[in-house]
Every structure is written in C-alpha cells, then in structure tokens.
Amino acid sequence: MTPPLSLSDFDFALPPELIAQQPMAERSASRLLDGRADVAVDRHFRDLPGLLRAGDLLVVNDTAVIKARLLGVKASGGAVEALVERVEADGVVLAHVRASKSPKAGSRIRFADAFEADVIGRAGDDGSLFRLRFPDDPYALLDHHGHVPLPPYIARADDSDDVARYQTVFAERPGAVAAPTAALHFDVALLESLAERGVERTAVTLHVGAGTFLPVRGESIEGHVMHSERFEVGAAATRAIAAARARGGRIVAVGTTSLRALEAAALRGGDALAPASGETDLFITPGFGFRVVDLLLTNFHLPKSTLLMLVSAFAGHARMRSLYDHAIAARYRFFSYGDAMLLARANGGDR
C-alpha cells in the first residue's frame, strides 16, 4: 500500500533569483510551460490561442484586489501594520494587525496620518483577526490611503506600477487581498485572439484572502484546515459551462481560485453544477475527484504550499515534480509576477 503524501513530498529547492520581483513589461510576454503531454514544451503565454480549440470555455476570476495594507500608529505612538482580510456587510473591517503589543478593544489606531479606526475586538476561530470600524466607507479609505498588498516574497515596497499590474484585466468586484495571478498574463490583444479562435469566456468570483500564504504546519497534511474565502458561481457561469459541455468544449480554469470556486460549487450541487455562493474552505490534495475543470492555467507555487498540493492533485504528483524540475532548469520565473503553466487533468481532462 502506498503511504500517504506528507508535507516534505511538496518541497523543492528554488534558487532565490527565480522569484520574480517585477512583472514583465507586457503581460502576455511571460513564458508558458505546456505541461499537458508527456514531454513538456516551452512556449510563451501569447501562444495560448493556438493551444485551445473553438468551443473551449475560459473561466476567470473577476475579483479585484483592494489596497489592503495600511500603516499606522497606536495612541501610544507604537507602529502598526494592518492587512485587511475582508470588509463585512455592516462595514466592519477584519484585519491582521502587527504591532509590538496587540491593540486592545476600545483603543484607536491612526492610519496613514489620515483617519482613525476603532478597535472593536478579536475575530476569527483562532482570534488572529481584529475587528475595526472605519469612520467612512472602508473601500474608499483603502483606495486613498492603502498600499498594494504585494506578497511577502516580493522584497520591495509597492509602487505606482503595481496598482495596475497587480490587478487583472477581469477585475470587477473588490474584495481580494491577493491577485488571482494566472490571470495577470492576459491583455486585450490576447483576449481578442482567443475570441477569434472561438474560445468563449465566463466569470466566477473568489475573493482571495491573506490566508493563501499561510503555511501548512506539521508533516501530515491531512489535518490542515484551509482559510475560508467568499465565492460565487452564478447562473451565467453554470449555463456557459453546460453549453460548453454540450458542444464538446473543454472547461479551462484560469488559476487555482477559479478552479476552487467551480469545484466547491460542484460539491454543493451534487451530480449537476448549480449556482452557489458563500464561504469555502475546500482543501484539494492528491486523490480529490475533480468534477468540472479539464485544463488549468496556473503560475508556479511556493514549496510546501496548499496551492502546490492542488496542482499536484490536478495533474498528478510525479508529473508536477517533473514539471517543476524542468521549470527550474529552464530558468522560469516563479510566483505572483512569474511565468505560467498549462496543465491537463490527470484522469483525462484534455479530451
């Protein structure tokens, strides 16, 4: 009997210089590792229309990244850094707060030397979040005073270019604190080429949370609990998927976030994919039975990360190790501003 996979099975050595610190000058100029067949092929992202067929359906995530990082001070003068996780329906902000001493309920934090937020108390199952009340519309205040929440492996401060480049061309619904990075490679010219090819497109929503960067603690991956994220797969998306299936088209998820939204909806709907929304903490590991997605466009992910486990589940663990070895040897650029790969589902997704 094959032993279950453990955390070390998803580890790999990555030269630090392969971690992309800046985006490419042109979005679609990134490289694309075509990993669908036994032999990997080095391509460019702008080659994508020639790799898909008329009738295929791209499913993108239309979430928009908010300027979720705020710098401030407590009344005592101590420095504070907050990373907003989400804005609740009542306007209360849930945030990760870093300070020499945690702020107490009833205190105030002054952000960006511009406005004060009231600390209401703790939130989250483990109390790791703080509930804050802003004096005005949180989205407007973040847009004016916040910083682009670049991932921790990008070792520089955000700049004006990041405002546009750490946002996809599909972004419509504010709520994410990390970009759905596979979609960062698309530009208008590429979308026009895909449309000319006969490739159709629909959108789902998954608001990526800061928990996407949380490590798996412990060698066993079975006990890991994923962070919860808000998602919506609407009626337009389910109709588009049904139509694509009827004409023999393949469902192409643009990024792991689109895939998680689709597969979460499928699990709720039983045998048929139906509209669904709410929260999902779906943790996809090898052995997961995919119901919707045939092909996956995705960036390269961190060692030991839940996203690497997801793509290993999709394409096969041994296959992913081989593809990552190829990508490192061929000097692909890794992580959010890095290059991409195209994968077929291990159990016959590339029909």
Question: Can you offer a commentary on this structure?
Answer:
By secondary structure, the protein is of the alpha/beta class. The chain has 2 domains: 7-65 and 162-344, QueA-like, CATH 3.40.1780; 69-147, Thrombin, subunit H, CATH 2.40.10. The protein is 22% helix and 26% strand. It has 8 helices and 17 strands. It has helices at 48-51, 138-145, 160-165, 188-197, 235-246, 256-269, 306-315, 317-329; strands spanning 31-34, 41-44, 57-61, 63-65, 69-74, 79-87, 93-99, 108-111, 115-123, 129-133, 173-176, 200-206, 229-233, 251-254, 276-280, 295-299, 340-344. A 9-stranded mixed β-sheet has the order 2-1-17-16-14-3-12-13-15, covered by helices on one side. It has a 6-stranded antiparallel β-barrel with strand order 5-6-7-10-9-8. A hairpin with a 5-residue loop joins strand 9 (115-123) and strand 10 (129-133). Helix 7 (306-315) crosses helix 8 (317-329). The mean pLDDT is 94.
